[in-house]
Automatic annotation (TrEMBL):
Organism of provenance: Uruburuella testudinis
Ranges of residues in domain Aldehyde dehydrogenase: 36-474
Known role: Oxidizes proline to glutamate for use as a carbon and nitrogen source.
Gene coding for it: putA
UniProt protein name: Bifunctional protein PutA
Family membership: In the C-terminal section; belongs to the aldehyde dehydrogenase family. In the N-terminal section; belongs to the proline dehydrogenase family.
Amino acid sequence: LSNEFVLQQLQAEMNEAARQSYAAAPLTAVEADAAAAHEVRNPADFSDIVGTAAFIKADAVPEAVSAAKTVEGAWAAVTPFERAEILRRIADKFEAAMPVLMMLAVREAGKTLQNAIAEVREAVDFCRYYADEAETTCADRAPIGTVAAISPWNFPLAIFTGEVAAALAAGNVVLAKPAEQTTLIAHYAVQLMHEAGVPKNVLQLLSGAGDVGAALTQDTRINGVIFTGSTEVAGLINRNLSRRNDHPVLIAETGGMNAMIVDSTALAEQVCADVLNSAFDSAGQRCSALRVLCVQEDVAEHMLAMIKGAMNELRVGNPAQFNTDVGPVIDAEAQQNLLAHIEKMKAAAQSFHQIALPQDAENATFVAPVLFELNNLNELQREVFGPVLHVVRYRAGELDALIDQINAKQFALTHGIHSRIDGTVAHICRRIEAGNVYVNRNIVGAVVGVQPFGGHGLSGTGPKAGGPFYLQRLSRAAAWQMPALTRNGEADEQALH
Ligand code: UN1
């Protein structure tokens, strides 16, 4: 079956699913008055109302935490094998609900169809991977207790599910706080998780704004926080947790300022395809996305001409169409921030190349993909989260200085190398600071269980998601059970000497 055929089938079912209206109330154990209910609008077309999302008030958080604490013991007593079975049932339910979940990813988060498929697949992979991990590594481990899982809008199902599934797999009770922009898909996912057998108090959905996340991380009964989002918010959470003396766990996965180094031996066509995919897929809204392309001087003219030509072929538009490459950015605030950066760079950069938006881009949050040539890396001061690529040129003798400049940004997440010289690849891999270094390929789309994903420095705490150490951080070695020596034991002891 061709991908296109499968997509066509799915699209028919998605259209069917789109006829319903979606309402997301908080799924908490407490009777919480909704603080506000608002219409969720499609970022590719504001006239399309996807559903209604209700937010919890921050002052309801302590009661939800109390409810979570009451079930810690019961959930910890469920064996890792039973927890794994529940996670596998969630994976099956997500697969069965593929059209609805994809439809929500497209209409609520602006994901393209291809990205929406990948989104659901990754969520399924996380459930199955952590189920296997629970069985193989959690037998002699104890959960840490109650965990807050705070997740971003850019992977509204995959990362949301990855955080929740990991915490549950390790035996923890979970309070999930999804990004406010993508409440509907999180709500749908939690309903499926409850149907699959996760008890209601073991997993509560605290949909809300930033104040709900803040209240969660300030509640001293929370034993751990899993956070994916901005470096700044991770810093706030870290400061909340570090005031305590009982060492709550923090797993943070934050920003990136990812670079790709392309030397004069690289295959131009491959570079071109990988740059376009890494910089502009998902409208550049991935922390793994390519932000800085570093091209060796000798081949820069040729490479950049090819890349600009290929940019002109990108189709920006309605993400629900098969042939769309780049959808909208998440909301008007993100769009304004990006447009402000782009205006500033147009004045400051050496040169730029920006493609045109389609005629019907009104009433939506599209940002036209753009490439800026900079004199050097210092001109890029902060992480930019959108379809904006920066380019610098370097001379062969300047490679180490370039790596130093990249490392000085302190974002050690995903970098890439395009070179056919093994020695160059090995040298860069040794010196560059990163969670993942991708060689002669694109730098996005880490596969759960195959390419564990995460970074260090300003990019996060580790351990990598979808990797073998993640559940260890969310659990501890079970207490060592030391049997008292019996009289016979003592006798046996003596007999030994
Ligand atoms: C993120 O964008 O927050 O490898 C992280 C990838 C994804 C990145 C997710 N796993 O592209």
